[in-house]
Design brief:
heterodimer; A: 110 residues; mainly beta; seven-stranded mixed sheet; 11 strands; globular; B: 109 residues; five-stranded antiparallel sheet
Chain lengths: 110, 109
């Protein structure tokens, strides 16, 4: 279970604040992702990094900025939080095609 | 880009019955099709996957079939048990996993 970890697990914050979510993996995988799961359970890809390089950047507001300081970490910084950003954010890693998810960060914007 | 449709959105079965969930995809270049199970408050967990060069794969009570020509794939769960109750997601991958909208399966005893 600690192969892909995320911090924090829960995040409650006010609109307009800036917050970061961190993801770390010890699987040695080259590719990492951020997904957003909304209240209707829809899992939508946001970003993909391969060897610290941005590969996929879906239609996501530029308030969201991913950063990969090294292969084991992919962080997500969100500026000027809005109510609609409330969701569960999952980090995932992949080796070849098989993808593994982190435990998720539940973000609530008030 | 890839689009994945999943049906039904909810499925209720009696314990011991079979459950079938169907998905279609749009991009013929997609070549990997996993299924994930997500229990309430937990992360999605991979339960079975199939690659585009295979038509069927089975693992105990679960099986997946793939029809590349029709661009659809299905998950079959036999002898369902209450612990199979969860949300199931299909996905298709070319460069990244694109998920269907999920099926909430309820198995009543």
């Amino acid at each position: 279970d600690t192969a892909v970890s995320q911090t924090p697990k829960y995040l409650v914050t006010q609109m307009g604040n800036d917050k970061s979510i961190k993801c770390e993996q010890n699987l040695g995988h080259d590719t990492m992702y951020w997904y957003k799961q909304d209240s209707k359970k829809f899992l939508k890809i946001m970003f993909s990094y391969n060897n610290k390089e941005l590969i996929i950047n879906e239609t996501v507001p530029n308030r969201f900025s991913p950063k990969s300081p090294d292969k084991a970490h992919l962080n997500l910084h969100i500026n000027s939080l809005e109510l609609g950003d409330s969701a569960v954010y999952f980090c995932a890693t992949a080796t070849g095609k098989t993808q593994y998810f982190g435990p998720g960060t539940r973000l609530l914007v008030l | 880009g890839e689009n994945v449709e999943q049906h039904p959105s909810t499925l209720s079965v009696q314990e011991g019955d079979s459950a079938v969930i169907k998905c279609t995809y749009s991009d013929s270049a997609s070549n990997y099709f996993p299924w994930y199970k997500q229990e309430l408050g937990k992360r999605p967990q991979l339960i079975i996957d199939i690659r585009s060069n295979v038509g069927e794969k089975k693992d105990q009570r679960i099986a997946v079939t793939l029809n590349k020509t029709a661009k659809h794939f299905s998950l079959h769960i036999t002898e369902t048990q209450p612990e199979d109750s969860a949300v199931y997601f299909c996905a298709a991958r070319k460069t990244a996993l694109i998920f269907g909208k999920g099926t909430t399966l309820s198995v009543s005893s």
